[in-house]
Design goal:
With about 425 residues, this protein is mainly α. It has two domains: about 160 residues, no CATH class; about 150 residues, Glycosyltransferase. It is about 45% helix and about 0% strand. The protein contains 14 helices and two strands; from the N terminus they run ββαααααααααααααα. A two-stranded antiparallel ribbon has the order 1-2. Helix 3 runs antiparallel to helix 4, helix 7 runs antiparallel to helix 8 and helix 12 runs parallel beside helix 14. It is globular. The two termini are about 35 Å apart.
C-alpha cells in the first residue's frame, strides 16, 4: 500500500505475533490387504503430531480488555526501536531519569509552592506550571503525611488555592482558564488518591465553576462567562472533568459528552489528511475543510483530542490507526531541536503519551522505545529539561517526568477509561 504524497510504504505490526503452528503430517495411505483368505485389520499407523489447540473465535466477555489493533508505522520508525522486548532495561533508565527530574523540581520549588526565580517570573503561566509540577510529583509518590501528601504537593495545592477570587476562579492573569483547568486536574487527582483529602470541597467548587461556564457549543473560552470557545482551553477543561468524574466527583455526564462533541467538530476527514499526511487530524477551527486550513491542524491538539476521545473508538477504527501512525511518524525530534523549543516538544510528547499508554499493546511499546527513549537523551546533568524554554525548565521538566512515569498508571489520566 503506497500512501499519497510520495511517502514511504508502512508496515502493519501486529499487537502480538502469532505462535508458529507445526503443520500436521498427512495421513499415510491405507495398507494393502494381506493375501490371506481372511481380511487382516489395518496395521496401526503413528498418529500425526497434535497441532497447537485453536480456540474458536468468541465474543469477549463484558468488561474484557479489547485486543490492541495492528499499528501502522513507517520503516524509519521501526528502525529506531531498541531491541529490548521485555523493556526491563528501558524501564530502569526511565526510573533513573524521573528520580533526577524530581530532584530538580524539589530543589527549585519556592517556599510558597511555586516554581521560578520569583512568584511572577512566568506571568500568565505560573498556575499551569505549578499544577504540572504537583502532578509530576503525585505521579511518583505513594507517600502520605498527616495532611495527605508530601510537602511539595501540599505546597503547590496551597499556592493554587491562594489565587482564588470570590467565585472560586483560580487565576492571576488573562487567559486564566488555562491555569484554572490545570489546577482542577491536580485537585481531581488528589481527590482520587486520598478520598478524605483536606481540600476536597475546594476541588468540587473549582470544578463546579467549569461546569457553570460551559458555552452553548460545549466548549470554554479564555475566561469564565465568555461564550467564545477555544479548542485548547476546552481540551484542558475536558481533561480535568474526566479526571474529576473518575475520582468520584459528581459531574453531569451530559456536560462531558457535550464537550467531547465540541472537540469532534474540529476533526478533519481522513481524505483531507491524505492530501498532506504531515498535518494533524484535528483543526484549530471547527468545520475547516480547505487545504489552506490544514496548516492549523496541530500535533498537540491531535494528540490531546484523541487521548481524551479514545474510549469512543474501537482499537481498529481507521481514525485510531491513522492517528497512531501520524503521532509516531511526526513526533517531535527532540534530539534535533535546540533547548528553546523543548517546552513545546515536551507538551506534544506528554499528550501523545496519554494517547499511547491508553491504547496499550504494540503501539505503547513502540512509543516508549522511540519518543520516550529520545526524551531521555536530552535531559540535562541537573535532571531538568528545557533550559532555554520560553515557559521555563519547571514546565518542560514536569511534562517530561509525567511522560516517563505514565507506565506506572498512578494517575487517572494514564488509566484506561471505558465509554459511558
Amino acid at each position: 500500500m503506497q500512501p499519497s504524497g510520495g511517502r514511504s510504504r508502512f508496515l502493519l505490526v501486529p499487537a502480538a505475533p502469532a505462535r508458529p503452528r507445526p503443520a500436521a503430517r498427512p495421513a499415510p495411505p491405507p495398507p494393502r490387504p494381506a493375501p490371506a483368505p481372511a481380511p487382516r485389520a489395518a496395521e496401526a499407523q503413528p498418529a500425526p503430531a497434535d497441532p497447537l489447540p485453536v480456540d474458536p473465535p468468541a465474543e469477549p466477555p463484558p468488561g474484557a480488555t479489547p485486543v490492541p489493533a495492528p499499528v501502522a508505522v513507517s520503516p524509519a520508525v521501526l528502525e529506531t526501536v531498541v531491541a529490548d522486548p521485555a523493556g526491563a532495561e528501558l524501564d530502569r533508565k526511565l526510573e533513573a531519569a524521573v528520580a533526577k527530574g524530581l530532584g530538580f523540581l524539589k530543589a527549585n520549588q519556592r517556599a510558597e509552592g511555586v516554581w521560578g526565580k520569583s512568584g511572577t517570573e512566568y506571568g500568565d503561566y505560573v498556575y499551569p506550571i505549578t499544577a504540572l509540577g504537583g502532578l509530576a510529583m503525585l505521579a511518583n509518590s505513594d507517600e502520605r503525611n498527616t495532611q495527605g501528601f508530601p510537602v511539595p504537593i501540599d505546597s503547590a495545592c496551597r499556592y493554587l488555592l491562594s489565587g482564588r477570587n470570590g467565585n472560586g476562579y483560580i487565576s492571576n492573569a488573562s487567559k486564566g482558564m488555562f491555569g484554572h483547568a490545570f489546577a482542577c486536574l491536580l485537585f481531581a487527582e488528589c481527590c482520587e488518591r486520598e478520598k478524605d483529602w483536606q481540600w476536597k470541597e475546594d476541588a468540587r467548587n473549582a470544578i463546579t465553576l467549569c461546569l457553570a461556564n460551559q458555552g452553548k457549543d460545549g466548549g470554554w473560552g479564555y475566561e469564565p462567562a465568555v461564550d467564545d470557545s477555544e479548542i485548547v482551553v476546552s481540551l484542558c477543561v475536558l481533561q480535568a472533568l474526566q479526571a474529576g468524574r473518575s475520582a468520584g466527583i459528581e459531574i453531569d455526564l451530559q456536560k462531558i459528552q457535550s464537550a467531547e462533541t465540541y472537540v469532534l467538530r474540529h476533526k478533519t476527514s481522513l481524505e483531507i489528511q491524505d492530501i498532506e499526511p504531515s498535518c494533524g487530524l484535528f483543526f484549530y477551527f471547527p468545520g475547516a475543510s480547505s487545504k489552506a486550513m490544514m496548516k492549523l491542524a496541530s500535533y498537540p491538539i491531535t494528540a490531546q483530542a484523541m487521548a481524551l476521545l479514545l474510549p469512543r473508538f474501537a482499537p481498529d477504527d481507521p481514525l485510531v490507526l491513522r492517528c497512531s501512525k501520524y503521532l509516531l511518524d511526526e513526533r517531535p525530534r527532540v534530539a534535533q531541536r535546540n533547548s528553546s523549543g523543548l517546552g513545546e516538544d515536551c507538551l506534544s510528547i506528554f499528550y501523545s503519551t496519554l494517547y499511547f499508554v491508553s491504547l496499550g499493546g504494540e503501539a505503547w511499546r513502540i512509543w516508549k522505545q522511540t519518543a520516550l527513549t529520545e526524551l531521555l537523551g536530552v535531559q540535562a546533568a541537573d535532571g531538568s529539561w528545557g533550559e532555554k524554554s520560553f515557559y521555563g525548565q519547571a514546565f518542560a521538566t514536569s511534562l517530561a517526568i509525567l511522560s516517563l512515569s505514565a507506565g506506572k498508571k498512578r494517575l487517572t489520566i494514564f488509566r484506561d477509561r471505558k465509554k459511558e
